[in-house]
Amino acid sequence: MASSSEAEILRVSQVIRDRWKVKSKIGGGGFGEIYEATDLQNHNECVAIKVESSKATKQVLKMEVAVLRRLQGKRHACKFYGCGRNDEFNYLVMSLQGKNLADLRRETPRQCFSLSTSIRIAHQILEGIREIHSIGFLHRDIKPSNFAMGRSTSNQRTVYMLDFGLARQFLNQKGEMRSPRSAAGFRGTVRYAAVTAHKNKEMGRQDDLWSLFYMLTEFIQGSLPWRKIKDKDEVGRMKENVDLNALLEDCPLELHQFAIHLKSLGYIDTPDYDYLERLLSQVERENGFTMDEPFDWEINYENLPGAKRNQNGNASARLKSHTTAMINRPLDDRNRALETQAPLTMGEDDDEQTNGPQAAALIPLDGLNGGISQEVVAPPKIEKPKYKRHEFMKPKYGTVNLDVISAVNARLAAVGMDDEEENNDVEANFNLPSSVLRPQTAVESSASLRTGKPKSSDKTTKSNRSITLSINSRYKKRMTPVTDTTNAQADDMSGNARTALTLLSKWHSSFENSSEDVEGMNNQEGDRSNKDGSARNIIYGRLSAAFTPLSRNSNETTSPGGTSSSRLSPMTVHKQSTTINQNSPSNGGGRQSRSTSRDQKGSVQRTASVGAAPSSTSIITHFKNLVSSFNPRNNRATSVEPNNSSEVSYGLASSGGIRVSPSVTNAKVAARVIAPADEEKEARRQRRLRRRSSDVNLAMCGRDDLQSPESPRVTAIVQKSVVTTNSPSIVRLRDNGSDEQFKIPLEDNKPILFCRRKRYQFLNFPRATTKS
Ligand SMILES: Nc1ncnc2c1ncn2[C@@H]1O[C@H](COP(=O)(O)OP(=O)(O)OP(=O)(O)O)[C@@H](O)[C@H]1O
Predict the structure, then answer these.
(1) All residues at 6 or more sequence positions from 523 whose CB lies less than 8 Å from its CB, including other chains
(2) Keywords for this entry (predicted)?
(3) Listed residue (431, 344, 425) closest to 592, CA to CA
(4) What are phi and psi of 669, to 5 degrees?
(5) CA-to-CA dists, residue 139 to 188, 204, 207, 266, 759, angstroms
(6) Could you tell me the pTM of the whole model?
(7) Which of 218, 262, 381, 597 has CA 20 to 30 A from 688's CA?
């Protein structure tokens, strides 16, 4: 509404139409106030009453009533109980729902939802949008606070669409498209509005879907790039020019496809809702999300180590933020409106209220005094904001699998990492909610990490410190965005012995977002300014494995450098020596890492006769790619092309043997983390680093285990040593059998595989026990 004074429109205990008794105010936005009330004529059932001052310059409740009535019977619409008006206000009574999605997101410890929750919620929102479009209306203000979860046990997992105040009929009474106006004015909320709205053009069905797309991105990523930009036009420009690859970093490929479909649509076009639903279903299916798994808010955040419940989740904070919007938002003050994320209405759109077929669709409001005409009053004085903007965009903690990384880092910091002191493995367990990490087996409820120097009996493992970390397959796509098209392809899906290509890639490109996160090989001290041990953790080898079975036929070769086949990476020079034995047993964990190393060696020996000599030219070529993939300056330029492959690009062939199940499709990630306890240890570590390899462990597992409990889950570790040397431009690759040295054209001594961990320092684990 144009404004309301701080006095509320309804009083507690006020009874409307002898039926609805006001209990409390539960919200207020740009256009109205929402109260909880009880229905005295229906067993005191709780209802929501939305009221709008009859003096408001922009009356939107009529539209709400019209749309809500037409939506009756649809899954994502509130029940309509009644409406009316009197001298003071117009009102709409509907079923009471639970918290809205904006509040729920703010209550999460990281201000973002897990991929599972995000996708499943988006799926329901898409259905809701489809429903409103099916009755001939656009919503035009799709945003998280306009969706609420159900409140009763029977509907608490259903998303309800709210607030049809800015809706517009796009079909005329004959069911034909209304012709678009040349200048329509801005409608919606700046953060989520489609570019069409920013351009003041007539919005179409695709624009509601664009808003859903921005919402979904925000759910997953925790924020949108324009969250702090106040200028509406600037936000519009940013949206128009946004690099989808950057925006959707680590998101499932299907989101790219979602956006690509929307881009292809104009006002007149009917979106392919089925296709969009299929995309979301695909993400759900591929990641093993099930409808009955809990949403993030159904998990007790307090059980998460180090996680604090956000204070803004309580009712009064919700109320406050909405009240702010309601009190302070002048209709034409775009900055302030943006701050509160209340809908903006700019320009003329008169036919919304009074003209055209839409007006004909409006029902008369009946009420206490019925049919009282509205007075026209001057807009009330604009008051200063009472509350500061609620800054809910906390620093980005990245996506969900960072929980795991953070947990690992914090855990390692706690257990200490000096291998001079700890000759044996350190094993630590920590609990993570199932939505964060899929346990290695269906029944496990904890993830385990294993660190430590190999025992002396273990001759084959070079790793001095390594963690094998199982990342839920559901995050596969986010961990491994396609960044190149040189993926090796599977030539044979049913062979007994296969050749595999292991690709190194960034596995969480959030680390690469800012250049200060990345340190050169010669600059691995960690953040000395931060005395907190965990803050100085360094994650080495942010690598994921893209694992693609190649031909079972070992003599079906690809020429070194991959030049003979565009489908194969240049690094396929090693492919002959990477043999997979599908019969290999597996138990998982660090122990497995060692046994696999032994297998690797055997594998290398077994296949040595068929292995082509590696071409250093091709390796250097590939390293160039690798360098650029980890170079933040080049990163943005990396092409991300949605395609069917869920795996990654930048490749470094592993010549280690891999044991995997026949249906390996997923990658697990192993990261090497070093948390120096003090300066001296750090110096020691530096020296040691020059001597030793920093192993990159790539662990893989079939994701069949998630779908079919019977199928044997096989986990394997591929080891590749990347050896630092004194010169930043020299990197030695060491396999179990060979040791090769390459000159790497590093730019400005920029690192290849190293990055400093700065951001993810919030989890604080209790000290772990050290096994000796
Ligand atoms: N039926 C309902 N049940 C429970 N809560 C509701 C209901 N309707 C609205 N709310 C709450 O009130 C808030 C504001 O409602 P609504 O969006 O309809 O008002 P508005 O004035 O149009 O707000 P805005 O201008 O921010 O869009 C919602 O975010 C939601 O939290």
Answers:
(1) 749, 751
(2) ATP-binding, Kinase, Nucleotide-binding, Serine/threonine-protein kinase, Transferase
(3) 425
(4) -120, 140
(5) 9, 10, 9, 17, 38
(6) 0.49
(7) 597
Q: What is the mean pLDDT of residues 659-678?
A: 34
What average pLDDT is seen over the chain? 58
User: What's the Cα-to-Cα distance from 11 to each of 16, 294, 765, rounded to whole Å?
Assistant: 10, 37, 48
Tell me if 345 CB under 6 Å of ligand 1. no
Rounded distance, CA 429 to CA 723, Å? 29
* Among 291, 377, 383, 392, CA closest to 341: 392
At residue 685 the predicted structure's pLDDT band, cuts being 50, 70 and 90, is confident
Angle at 13 between CA 365 and CA 10, to 5 degrees: 45
- Report whether residue 342 contacts ligand 1, using a CB cutoff of 6 Å: yes
Cβ of residue 30 lying under 6 Å from some atom of ligand 1: yes
Q: Where are the alpha helices (DSSP H) in 49-170?
A: 61-70, 101-107, 115-134
Ligand 1 centroid from CA 108, angstroms? 20
DSSP strands (E only) in 555-692: 579-581, 666-667, 669-674
Q: How far apart are CA 605 and CA 610, in angstroms?
A: 10
Q: What percent of the chain has pLDDT over 70?
A: 40
Does the structure show a pLDDT above 80 at 125?
Answer: yes
Q: Could you report the per-residue pLDDT of 176-223, keeping only the tens digit for each?
A: 999 999 889 898 999 999 999 999 999 999 999 999 999 999 999 999
In angstroms, the Cα distances linking 42 to 98, 468, 592 are 20, 58, 63
Q: How many CA atoms lie within 13 A of 84 on its CB side?
A: 15
Buried b (16+ CB within 10 A) or exposed e, 209-243: bbbbbbbbbbbbbbbbebeebeebeebbebbeebe
Contacts of residue 391, Cβ cutoff 8 Å, sequence gap at least 6: none
Report the C-alpha gap between 697 and 721 in whole angstroms: 8
Provide the CB-side half-sphere exposure for 284 (13 A, CA).
19
Q: How far apart are CA 77 and CA 80, in angstroms?
A: 9
Element (H or E) spanning 629, and its range? helix 616-630
Let me know: does 549 contact 716? Beta carbons within 8 Å. Answer: no
Angle between the N-to-C axes of helices 253-263 and 273-287, in degrees from 0 to 180, rounded to the nearest 10: 170
pLDDT, residue 300, reads 65
Q: Is 750 annotated as a binding residue?
A: no
pLDDT for 625:
59
Query: Considering only CA atoms, which residue is closest to atom 16 of ligand 1?
Result: 163
- Cβ atoms of 500 and 550 closer than 8 Å: yes
Query: Does residue 724 have a pLDDT over 90?
Result: no
ipTM of the complex: 0.98
Q: What's the pLDDT tens digit per position in 1-23?
A: 334 445 789 999 999 999 999 99
Distance CA 751, CA 542 (A): 12
Measured from the CB, is residue 96 less than 6 Å from ligand 1?
A: yes
Residues in contact with 673: Cβ distance below 8 Å, sequence separation at least 6, in sequence order: 408, 409, 412, 417, 451, 465, 467, 537, 538, 539, 540, 757
Provide the token pair at 350: 């008169």
3-class secondary structure per residue, 289-333? CCCCCCCHHHCCHHHCCCCCCCHHHCHHHHHHHHHHHHHHCCCCC
CB 107 within 8 A of CB 309: yes
Q: Shortest CA distance to 664 belongs to which of 633, 698, 614, 630?
A: 698
Q: How far is the CA of 28 from the centre of ligand 1 (A)?
A: 6
Contact between 142 and 120 (Cβ < 8 Å): no
Which residues are part of the catalytic machinery? 141
